[in-house]
Amino acid sequence: MKQFAEESQNIKFTKYCNHLKIKGVTFVTIYNKLGITNQQFIRIKKGSSRAKEIYLNRIEADFKKELSDFNDYNLVKSNDRKLVAIPLYKLNFMDHNLDADSLLQPGNKENYGNNITIPNFTDGRSAITIFGDGGAPRYNGGDIIILAEKINVDDEIEFGRFYIVITKTARYIKKIMPCTNMECITLVSENVIYPPMDVMRKNVKGLLKVLGKIQREGF
Q1: Mean pLDDT of 79-104
Q2: What is the DSSP-derived secondary structure letter of residue 151?
């Protein structure tokens, strides 16, 4: 139970920080308030270091106004320490008219549908339904995919993994591979009808790593 409590604290710490970032509070401001280094802050967010209760209390005290509308829907109290509720969003993420910046915001009731509770996805931050065949045959229309926290294109990318890639004009579900130069990334589909394509890093608004899927038989 102690280990579960510590994992819950780390998840809550990450949720607090992401919510504050949306409110305009930088991570630098947060870790300076806590009196920790950037390296310590990153380790806590990644779960490799424990989020002490005093850190949560300090965040709640110093950023009370910014956290006034915080909705901690991603935490589940359970005897199974690997059980986490993940918000399932109602939108078609492949819609090119989608406002990607506002899609995965905590407490976004317009876009947020229900929680899905899945063991062993403690790093899952959101779930969406796939439309189209851009990710086929790995991810097919009708599959629900689980996504990690949104990152920027200049953050560390795990090459060879599938990501939702959000650009200024389109959304893709593709593997990301190194490009011929540092100014771009290469998007690769396992569907042979789609050739590899290069995307300029400056046109990428965000990336969400695909962690896995829920598949309905016969869909």
Answers
A1: 54
A2: B
